[in-house]
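In this supplementary section we document a worked example of the pipeline. Step one takes a protein sequence of length 190 as its only input; no multiple sequence alignment statistics are reported here. Step two produces a three-dimensional model, which step three serialises into structure tokens for compact storage. The input and output of this example are shown verbatim.
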Amino acid sequence: MKTTLLHIKNMVCPRCIDAVRNLLEQAGYRPTDVSLGQAQLDQSTPADPVSVAPMLREAGFDVIMGRADQLTEQIKTALVEYLEHLRTARMPLTTSAFLTDRFAATYSHLSKVFSRTANLTIEKYLIRLKIERVKEMLSYNEMTLSEIAEHMRYSSGQHLSNQFRQVTGHSVSEFRRDLMPRRLSLDQLA
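The serialised model returned by step three reads:
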């Protein structure tokens, strides 16, 4: 059975998977598999990515046309998974080892493609991703800064605090005092 594989930008969670599946089904397509960053359609409903793009764009998603853009989105998805790896692994891999294992490509190649298409290095994107996760944890007000730093594999609360200020322009205490903490959606990071 021949299928059409669509690469989709801004899919970052299980709700995004459900949303894309529902959008495609409502438009008359039959997705055989939808996962973070992609949707596969069966041969009875092949789709030209250009024709599907407006519908997805209206819901906050976008179809990725070029190979470099597709790889960049796959790297972003892998980095979200890497944060979970950092949290749960006893001896976590480095970012470069995690990505080279995942993509069977050199880190140099992945880094060049990512930097060129995202206009941001992998390292800076990962820092932004981590800070957004820290903002989420701070907004719950269930952990101390030291506990959050340990959870996110920072060397200390001070290191986390310094990086937080560098990325957001605000201190952690300013963020906590703010009644409406401003968090970014993952698709706004790059």
